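Case study B.
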Amino acid sequence: MAIALPAESAPRPHKIDLSWPILVLFSAVLVVLIVLPMSWLFYYSFVDRTGAFTLGNFRTLVSDQSFVDPLITTVILATSSSIFCCLVAAPMGWLVARTDMPLRRTVRALVTASFVTPPFLGAIAWELLAAPNSGLINKAWRAISGMPQDEYLFNIYSLPGLIFVVSCYTFPYVFVLIANALDRIPGDLEDASSVLGGRTWTTARRVTIPLALPALLAGALVAFLQAMTLFGSPAILAIPAGFHTMTTKIWSLFNYPPKPELAAAASIPLLVLTIALLRAEHRILGRRGYSVVGGKQGDPRLVRLGWLNWVALAFVFLVLMCPVFLPYGALLNATFSRVATTLIWFDNFTLHNIHFVFFELSATKLAVQNTFILGVWSATVGTIMALIIGYLTTRRAIAGHRTLGFLATAPVAIPGIVLGVGLFLSYARPPFVLYGTLWILFLAFVTIALPAAYQQMQSAFRSVHTDLEDAGRILGATRLRTLRDITAPLLRTSVLATWCFIFVGVIRELSAAIMLFTSETKVISVLIFDLNESGDLGAISVLGLLMLAITFSVVIAVNRIPGFGGVRLRNT
Amino acid sequence: MQRRPFTRRGVLKASAGAVAGALAATQVKAAAPEPAAVTPALIEAAKKEGKVVWYAAMDLPVSERVARSFEAKYPGIAVRIERTGSERQFQRLAQEYTAKIYAPDIINASDAAHFVAWKRNGWLAPFVPEEVARFYPPEHRDADGLYATSRVYVSSLGYNTNLVKAEDAPRSFMDLLHPRWLGKMVKAHPAYSGTIMTATFQIARELGWEYFEKLGKQKVLQVQSSVDPPKKLALGERAVMADGNDFNVIQFKEAGQPVEVVYPAEGAPLIVCPNAVLKAAPNPNAARLFQSYLFSREGQQALCDFAAQHSAHPQVTEKPGRTPLAKIKVMKDDPVAVEAQAEEIKARYSKYFGV
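Model:
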């Protein structure tokens, strides 16, 4: 029996589905962002100054002591910071997620504060606090204990000092992963344990902690990578102490006469190590990425600490002193003090630094403007890209979505300074001369932000059921239209969180910017770094606090401090 | 390429003698352009451009002060300063020019060797402000009228008077090698600072590289800019500075901070800082107006008074209580030799100091 289908008689007006053009477009964009710079990087690492093929650069890398030493230092720095971060972040994450310790929300917010604090700013603040002779803590200790003038409690200009400061601003990564994992461990398993007679501590030891271990491992790896690829803190603390890490070494190769071939070659170990570690992490965690523990969210069982609450709280606030309270205090003090490392009192209070930065320093206005433009545009474009790519991959909307997902995640394996070198080598030459414009910084910032933004959007999409989208499609809307009218509004919170995440990331970025800026395209982070090299600590403090004020007000205005990305997103 | 006989040997004697015989030095070489006066037309054209970009490897408070006084004299022309160390600036300019980015209008460096290189590259514009032609001694202006000396100072030693008694303070470079200063000194870097590049060259020439080899074992706090050691002294972060500059120490001392300058017995390295208009200046008129202002008696006097540096302008007077340059024992500068050896100096330095 034949049934006449209405569609045959009255064909639906043809709507153009933009899927394919978008796939092509996005792939092309990602190729420009990632493949081109990395190709130039590889090319340069294998040529000498005349352009002839050589392995000489790598030979120098492994035989010259001035390259071997930084490599060893970097490994020590990254390993120690990673261990240190885990030792601090694991108990803190557990306390916040799994116990009835008071002020848990405050603690999370303060960890967020240490996350958005640029590590280089933290390093400068710690110079004010723990420089061996003039540091505020050392001076206070001398006053209390009567220690002689030429002895000190802490010396921040040392490898242990550097490890400490790097850890201060890396532990939030570990904390979030662990707190997240613990948040999502189903209460049922713990209930089962207690039904079977396990006491609170037995349950924690035998159920909760083992379930959180993969997250800890992932955290350790992330911390290792962060510490390894950081540029600002070592430049500020290691060079005065007379040693290099790989990142500062690479950067120093751009001193006159620049040696881009050696810089490219020296970038390769960082790149290879990062990829190897990410592979390892992937293998450990399986295909679930950062979501360590699946399953439905049951109410987590909170461990009652009783009188230990006070011990726990003391521990947590002692930890938070290091990245937040002490450095912020030191910066505030330096802002209003005539001598940066003298405590403010009536006789040395001054507004000179503020006046200098806002009315004398002619670089301020342009730097603030550039930073703001780059922050807003990178965050907007990055979020839109992450949104679209996240949609295409989670909904498997088009063939080739895997490739797209891979490309969007790939930059995670490129350390900022390596990307900076790669972009410089690619875009300071014809046919694409972007060096000297904000575009090259924009490319760098979007590339750096994309992997994390994409992962956030991806997990957000997973939490939205496809029913509504299907309804939209059945009613004749294109994919783009459903995305715009249905899915995106549902994801508003996640989209805003991702936007903030990128914005904050751009504001605090230094390692790629330091390779790519020109005088016209300076950003605040580079300006602060410049001022540090001439020792203008008062001006740095003002700019640093301005930077934090911009960051916090934007984050608060847009979204009332989300638990930076991951935490909130998974709860939506 | 054959270089012109450009030597700064005997600059000390020259600058001392300059005050006496300045007016004799009005003879301008044939290659230099006609001296240019500040005409209403120039001011008008500069105001139309409305801004000027100055790459200045100078202490930021000093250069910003000069910029603000220029802005006060010529309202409507905003000066934007791009500050970094001379050696970094040298690399930056080359990198930007290679990418065909022409941002700066005028440029100042504390490594005079850079002007030798820029002149050879043809990057500098011939421009001789009237006062330069009339008053500046020949050894303080380029024969082809491409640049002139904007300021002179020395890289000195210094100490914090709270931490070191006057009688214990080091008197010479060689004193710094004494074990008592182990871990107590701060020092700037020749791959960043033009002052330190110039000073390192002069010290190595006079005392030999063994001096730096030994100093490298003294665990110095290695900062970058030559303006930072005086700041670290004032903070009390280190007791003694092994190099840096004298003018910051003098400024701090006059402001009541516990620091004191020491001019080393062997002689203090002489730092001569030229300033030039760039040929590719995006604001050529404002550039020329600024150059004229900077080298005028007014501009030079303001610079010297505030910054505690010295001027090649013979009419500029030293503030009472400050040591005139003629009274300081200095080493001889030699930009041409510095240019030839810069790369080697940096390499040797990082060998001895680790960074």
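Confidence is low (pLDDT under 50) at residues 1-13, 287-295, 561-572 of chain A. The remaining cases will be described in the next quarterly update.
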